[in-house]
Amino acid sequence: MGDPWLSAYDAALRVARKAGAVIRDAGEKEIKVCTKSSTVDLVTKTDERVEKIIIGALREQFPDHCFIGEESVAKGEPCNLTDKPTWIIDPVDGTTNFVHGFPFVAVSIAFAVNKELEFGVVYSCLENKMYRGRNGKGAFCDDEKIEVSDVKDIHKSIIISEHGTDRSCEKVEKIFSTMKKILCIPVHGLRGSGTAATNMCLVACGAVEAFFEIGIHCWDIAAGAVIVKEAGGVLLDVNGGPFDLMSRRMVSANNMVIAERIIKEIEIFPADRDDAPIKKITKFCKK
Ligand SMILES: O=P(O)(O)O[C@H]1[C@H](O)[C@@H](O)[C@H](O)[C@H](O)[C@@H]1O
Ligand SMILES: [Mg+2]
């Protein structure tokens, strides 16, 4: 049998580039900002427009496929991963960065069949870097093959995490307590690009050893998960168990030694699963 998902992969690359160009253009103009689940969970017309462009183009070519998109889910569409061919899309990963002109913004498109991720494309559109990975076929940044770092000594590592968009003090305390413990191991440094998709690509290309977060969504990490795995890295749950795309928690690392060392320090807090019963999110826009 040939390569059943090659045309889907090519379509993902094409539409990611197109989406990135729309985001770059929109960043030059005035950006009207609305909020979703909290006052720091930002959304713009560009997020919605780009998601429509991506899903519109893919649906035209693949009318039988299913779609999970960040902005569609916010409007009340289901977020269930079934065995059917399913696209998992974050049109603008790093919306806060986009709004502020902080230069890491990514289009993230993944494709799963039988609940297995087949490929992932992360277009870091302000840097103009196309990261991509296909199951069993390696990971690339533009035309260059990428690999995770070979560092096993946590003391020689850089670790990424993020603060997320839930600012309840209890959670923020746990996030900072975890970060403090990791910093005091000590590691070489802690970083955060503001986009989970880009963070995972930084793990994949060996710039950092690990990225972990609780509270991310499947669309933030699905494409990055393929890229990390294909670059030789590992994906785990924050409790050391198997990675679960819908669980809203993840550790991605260059190897098990680094992953398990970080996991020892992570203070876990609850996050509702992505496939929990649907809650439409009310959007607030200032007049
Ligand atoms: O909402 P977008 O798509 O910009 O993505 C999120 C990031 O990817 C997270 O890592 C990050 O922690 C934030 O939750 C951020 O919202
Ligand atoms: Mg995102």
UniProtKB/TrEMBL annotation:
Which amino acids does the record list as binding Mg(2+) 1? E70
Q: What class of enzyme is it?
A: hydrolase
Enzyme Commission code: 3.1.3.25
Q: In which pathway does it act?
A: Polyol metabolism; myo-inositol biosynthesis; myo-inositol from D-glucose 6-phosphate: step 2/2
Q: Keyword set for this entry? A: Cytoplasm, Hydrolase, Lithium, Magnesium, Metal-binding
The record's GO molecular-function terms, alphabetically, read:
fructose-1-phosphatase activity; glucose-1-phosphatase activity; glucose-6-phosphatase activity; glycerol-2-phosphatase activity; inositol monophosphate 1-phosphatase activity; inositol monophosphate 3-phosphatase activity; inositol monophosphate 4-phosphatase activity; metal ion binding
Question: One of this protein's GO BP terms?
Answer: phosphatidylinositol phosphate biosynthetic process
The record's section on InterPro entries has:
IMPase, Inositol_monoP_metal-BS, Inositol_monoPase_Li-sen, Inositol_monophosphatase-like, Inositol_monophosphatase_CS
Does the record's keyword annotation contain Transmembrane? Answer: no
Reaction(s) catalysed by this chain, per the record, are: 1D-myo-inositol 1-phosphate + H2O = myo-inositol + phosphate; 1D-myo-inositol 6-phosphate + H2O = myo-inositol + phosphate; adenosine 2'-phosphate + H2O = adenosine + phosphate; beta-D-fructose 1-phosphate + H2O = D-fructose + phosphate
**Which cofactors does the annotated protein need, by name?**
Mg(2+)
Q: Name one GO cellular component term.
A: cytoplasm
Gene3D superfamilies on file:
3.40.190.80, Fructose-1,6-Bisphosphatase, subunit A, domain 1 (3.30.540.10)
Classify the source by domain of life.
Eukaryota
| PANTHER family noted in UniProt | INOSITOL MONOPHOSPHATASE (PTHR20854), INOSITOL MONOPHOSPHATASE 1 (PTHR20854:SF26)
Q: Which family does it belong to?
A: Belongs to the inositol monophosphatase superfamily.
User: How does this chain assemble?
Assistant: Homodimer.
Q: This chain belongs to which protein, by name?
A: Inositol-1-monophosphatase
Instruction: Name the species this protein comes from.
Output: Labrus bergylta
